[in-house]
Amino acid sequence: MHPRRILIAQGGGPTAVINQSLAGVVLAARGVSDVDLVYGARNGVRGIVNEDFLDLGQETAANLELVANTPSSALGSTRDKPDLKYCKEIIQVLQAHQINHFFYIGGNDSSDTLRILSLEAEKLAFPLRCIHIPKTIDNDLVSNDHTPGFPSAARFVAQAFAGANLDNAALPGVYVGVVMGRHAGFLTAASALGRKFADDGPHLIYLPERVFVLENFLADVKQAYQRFGRCVIAVSEGIHDASGTPIASLLAKTVERDDHGNVQLSGNGALADLLCEEIKSKLNIKRVRGDTFGYLQRSFMGCVSDVDQREAREVGEKALQFAINDQRNGTVAIKRSGAYSINYAVNYELLDLDVVAGKTRVMEDELIAASGTDVTDAFRLYLQPLLGSGMPDGFRLRSPAVAKIRNVGG
Amino acid sequence: MHPRRILIAQGGGPTAVINQSLAGVVLAARGVSDVDLVYGARNGVRGIVNEDFLDLGQETAANLELVANTPSSALGSTRDKPDLKYCKEIIQVLQAHQINHFFYIGGNDSSDTLRILSLEAEKLAFPLRCIHIPKTIDNDLVSNDHTPGFPSAARFVAQAFAGANLDNAALPGVYVGVVMGRHAGFLTAASALGRKFADDGPHLIYLPERVFVLENFLADVKQAYQRFGRCVIAVSEGIHDASGTPIASLLAKTVERDDHGNVQLSGNGALADLLCEEIKSKLNIKRVRGDTFGYLQRSFMGCVSDVDQREAREVGEKALQFAINDQRNGTVAIKRSGAYSINYAVNYELLDLDVVAGKTRVMEDELIAASGTDVTDAFRLYLQPLLGSGMPDGFRLRSPAVAKIRNVGG
């Protein structure tokens, strides 16, 4: 057996815990005697074809721990989606550096890159171990209970809506918060965990798993506003009409697409502004405010789930263990022990790359309320343990009202 | 002396610590023997004319502590700006309930309400002690070192930019974050405290204290982008042209005004979207993203400065002490002991209401860099102690680059 020469890269959108997985691989590799070197590629696969490598063997353990606790991809990332030609270039560089292990931390696009790469390496009889380490705030990898990065982003969304609900209760009106998630509504649904009291918002939740009909939306808002005297609404950026066309892209003057052919949904406030305008003009409600959570929800420094941190570290460590103990490529998957419950534990499995590669998980029907505008208790039991310890909690005054004396105001 | 009958209300935009001040008054009043009752008005002055009072004497100390740690106004708030007629109605209700102390927690509009009210009470020989308790995330009260609520919002903005900078470093491009603050740029300037390394963003900061010229903005962005290969920009919602017209209102199809005659700047993403479009089209940069921090920055649950919490509690407690020990109306002001420094302590003074009422503090020239697009060290020394303990910190990999072997990529 040749000495192990390891390369690690990070792809796609950053998360709050993606560097935990990086540290997980690097630190675990230090305990393996036949590991010759550990490199990191700058900016994902782009850094491989550019031969832009860092020698991670020269990092101190202390600094790796500090970087692990720092959000966003420490190696840099990329939106490049390699085709076969790109993958051949990657392999040439890996061969030149005699790298025989490649760990790619990313979402389903990154796992698909590994799938193509592993097939090409096999064709060339190049002994390359390809291990995918999951991360995505969208939580849209199939065959995973959840993906690292999602719990921390979900915690941000829950805390944001808990606060926005209190703000909206103090100065009543309609509040629309637009949350990331192109096809999967998990992150938007996390807004429900910001609720505590029965009349807390979000009062309505719109997910990409259900067709968005503007007339129904306006009727829902009107009804909630009449009932609560206010209305807090969580909307996924990926809501779409019956044809599948995103509502956001119906509005955009120019449609921007990324290298994966996806329409750019984040990075502007157009969807929130449109929905607010509709509510103002059609329902004649004056105080209507919209926020687009944008990049804050995936990169805010200082809102992280300790469960997410621990698991992101573990998937990195497990990736290295699988690479050494299993003689095959694959993707590390998080599996929950038992049903959705307040009792929580996970285990890790190595699945074949093509199980997750290029596939998209969306919210299962059991997690979405029959109304289509709320989540179920199953979802609450699913998400609650992931949010980690120390979730802030809100309380209300419980004073009785004072009897009126004049009773003429109004 | 009549027994003291106390009324407390909260006005204007909520903050993360406004309930600390409420608890500060209520709990301190419990130690005063001649306090007969403590009421809270629902929804600010609106609750007074509606006789919508809660008997805060029936709150437990434990629940008051929990509410103190909950963001947003627990009594509810209002944007009502009472005129003389409204103030006369208020006085009639106060007289009916024999209330002789009114504590109003709010910004400069709320202090102006108290000023009008105190003059009218004096005219009617109605013995009403009026004490203003400061709060505003805008930090725009004159004669105060800073105002409760601002430090926690500033902490949110600093943490948000620290994370957005890391996100932008991983996937380079231009990022525009729009921050609240109509006339005063303190909160936008807080973005500078998110920086750590010399090349960290925000690379440019636009404040309402300086005239915004689009051509200069584009030239600044171009230069920063060439230098850093990316650009993170903090923009105040209140930026305006040489005539004083907000850039945001130049764009809005319909201009919404609040009851104080102010144009509504928050609650939509129009300003960020406009600036992003200008950068994309004029500078030909593809990846340009804009976020409007919106209501998250003042109500996010779980981002608070412990210094802010402590001081917000103290201004409430001091308000009660001043009401008892000083025979006059006034506003509680926070004064720093000594110059801006890493050594930090404050003291509280009771100032006349007309010192702060209706006046607006903006950033002093010494806090703004000569370039007009950055802050000074004086500002950093001003703000740093306010952010509180446990600020998250970001770290970078320090690995050396690996020598290239093929050196053909690009």
TrEMBL record, chains A, B:
<comment type="pathway">
    <text>Carbohydrate degradation; glycolysis; D-glyceraldehyde 3-phosphate and glycerone phosphate from D-glucose: step 3/4.</text>
</comment>
<dbReference type="GO" id="GO:0047334">
    <property type="term" value="F:diphosphate-fructose-6-phosphate 1-phosphotransferase activity"/>
</dbReference>
<keyword id="KW-0324">Glycolysis</keyword>
<feature type="site" description="Important for catalytic activity and substrate specificity; stabilizes the transition state when the phosphoryl donor is PPi; prevents ATP from binding by mimicking the alpha-phosphate group of ATP">
    <location>
        <position position="109"/>
    </location>
</feature>
<feature type="domain" description="Phosphofructokinase">
    <location>
        <begin position="5"/>
        <end position="322"/>
    </location>
</feature>
<feature type="site" description="Important for catalytic activity; stabilizes the transition state when the phosphoryl donor is PPi">
    <location>
        <position position="135"/>
    </location>
</feature>
<dbReference type="GO" id="GO:0005737">
    <property type="term" value="C:cytoplasm"/>
</dbReference>
<feature type="binding site">
    <location>
        <position position="13"/>
    </location>
    <ligand>
        <name>diphosphate</name>
    </ligand>
</feature>
<dbReference type="GO" id="GO:0006002">
    <property type="term" value="P:fructose 6-phosphate metabolic process"/>
</dbReference>
<keyword id="KW-0418">Kinase</keyword>
<feature type="binding site">
    <location>
        <position position="108"/>
    </location>
    <ligand>
        <name>Mg(2+)</name>
    </ligand>
</feature>
<dbReference type="InterPro" id="IPR022953">
    <property type="entry name" value="ATP_PFK"/>
</dbReference>
<feature type="binding site">
    <location>
        <begin position="295"/>
        <end position="298"/>
    </location>
    <ligand>
        <name>substrate</name>
    </ligand>
</feature>
<comment type="subunit">
    <text>Homodimer.</text>
</comment>
<protein>
    <recommendedName>
        <fullName>Pyrophosphate--fructose 6-phosphate 1-phosphotransferase</fullName>
        <ecNumber>2.7.1.90</ecNumber>
    </recommendedName>
</protein>
<dbReference type="InterPro" id="IPR035966">
    <property type="entry name" value="PKF_sf"/>
</dbReference>
<dbReference type="InterPro" id="IPR050929">
    <property type="entry name" value="PFKA"/>
</dbReference>
<dbReference type="GO" id="GO:0003872">
    <property type="term" value="F:6-phosphofructokinase activity"/>
</dbReference>
<dbReference type="Pfam" id="PF00365">
    <property type="entry name" value="PFK"/>
</dbReference>
<comment type="function">
    <text>Catalyzes the phosphorylation of D-fructose 6-phosphate, the first committing step of glycolysis. Uses inorganic phosphate (PPi) as phosphoryl donor instead of ATP like common ATP-dependent phosphofructokinases (ATP-PFKs), which renders the reaction reversible, and can thus function both in glycolysis and gluconeogenesis. Consistently, PPi-PFK can replace the enzymes of both the forward (ATP-PFK) and reverse (fructose-bisphosphatase (FBPase)) reactions.</text>
</comment>
<dbReference type="GO" id="GO:0046872">
    <property type="term" value="F:metal ion binding"/>
</dbReference>
<dbReference type="InterPro" id="IPR011404">
    <property type="entry name" value="PPi-PFK"/>
</dbReference>
<keyword id="KW-0963">Cytoplasm</keyword>
<comment type="similarity">
    <text>Belongs to the phosphofructokinase type A (PFKA) family. PPi-dependent PFK group II subfamily. Clade 'B2' sub-subfamily.</text>
</comment>
<keyword id="KW-0808">Transferase</keyword>
<feature type="active site" description="Proton acceptor">
    <location>
        <position position="138"/>
    </location>
</feature>
<dbReference type="InterPro" id="IPR000023">
    <property type="entry name" value="Phosphofructokinase_dom"/>
</dbReference>
<feature type="binding site">
    <location>
        <position position="237"/>
    </location>
    <ligand>
        <name>substrate</name>
    </ligand>
</feature>
<feature type="binding site">
    <location>
        <begin position="136"/>
        <end position="138"/>
    </location>
    <ligand>
        <name>substrate</name>
    </ligand>
</feature>
<feature type="binding site">
    <location>
        <begin position="180"/>
        <end position="182"/>
    </location>
    <ligand>
        <name>substrate</name>
    </ligand>
</feature>
<keyword id="KW-0460">Magnesium</keyword>
<keyword id="KW-0479">Metal-binding</keyword>
